[in-house]
Design brief:
heterodimer; A: 109 residues; globular; B: mainly beta; 4-stranded antiparallel β-sheet
Chain lengths: 109, 119
């Protein structure tokens, strides 16, 4: 079952922060975050495995609440290069990775 | 780093023809490969999971006779769109999971995608 992402779209000025949420109705083994630019393949950002785990990648970090079956991606001090569509992918115990509908992030100068 | 090569990157074909898309893991063995389809401004929809040496597992609503998947070796999976029609036009992306990943939670390595346009 497809995870639900929110918001659908975000417009930021350079330097602003954003949070993207991802929730699932199924028990999760892991949550993946990817960023995709138009016409390109998704680029891996991070995976979260344990409940409550937080991981960081430059100024992009994420948390995973296993109990609530939710994950959030935090983008701080956004840069122009952060623009793109962010997908969360949820992996249940069947091992298939199902992606949410994506959140389009636009960072303006 | 692990590299997945996908070819062709773009194909234009006439309605009724078949198109084969290749997905190769260049520097690792992939026991599992996934095929996704993406319409413009939409999400990556999982079509099928391909395991080396066995039949692919298709997601609900995906016609297995229409989208033939072959995973003949640990480094190659192919997707053949048979008798393509304009509604099959889409961006197709493969991804691979490294062999030896039994615990899950390992990232997928994506190919660069194939833009299929059926006239």
């Amino acid at each position: 079952q497809q995870p639900v992402q929110s918001p659908q779209a975000v417009i930021l000025r350079e330097g602003e922060d954003a949070v993207i949420n991802c929730s699932s109705s199924k028990a999760l083994y892991s949550v993946h975050w990817y960023r995709q630019k138009h016409g390109e393949a998704p680029v891996f950002l991070m995976i979260l495995l344990k409940g409550g785990e937080q991981k960081g990648h430059e100024k992009i970090s994420a948390s995973f609440n296993e109990k609530k079956q939710q994950s959030s991606l935090y983008l701080t001090a956004s840069q122009l290069s952060y623009s793109g569509t962010y997908f969360c992918g949820t992996e249940s115990y069947s091992r298939n990775l199902i992606f949410g509908k994506g959140t389009k992030l636009s960072v303006k100068p | 780093g692990a590299v997945v090569s996908q070819h062709p990157s773009r194909v234009i074909c006439k309605s009724g023809t078949s198109v084969k898309i290749e997905c190769r893991s260049l520097d690792f063995q992939a026991t599992t490969m996934f095929w996704y389809r993406q319409f413009p401004k939409q999400s990556l929809m999982l079509m099928a999971t391909s395991n080396e040496g066995s039949k692919a597992t298709y997601e609900q609503g995906v016609e297995k006779d229409k989208f033939l998947i072959n995973h003949a070796s640990l480094t190659l999976s192919t997707l053949t769109v048979t008798s393509a029609h304009p509604e099959d036009s889409s961006f197709y992306i493969c991804s691979a999971r490294k062999a030896g990943d039994r615990l899950g939670g390992e990232k997928l390595f994506f190919g660069s995608g194939t833009q299929l346009s059926v006239l």
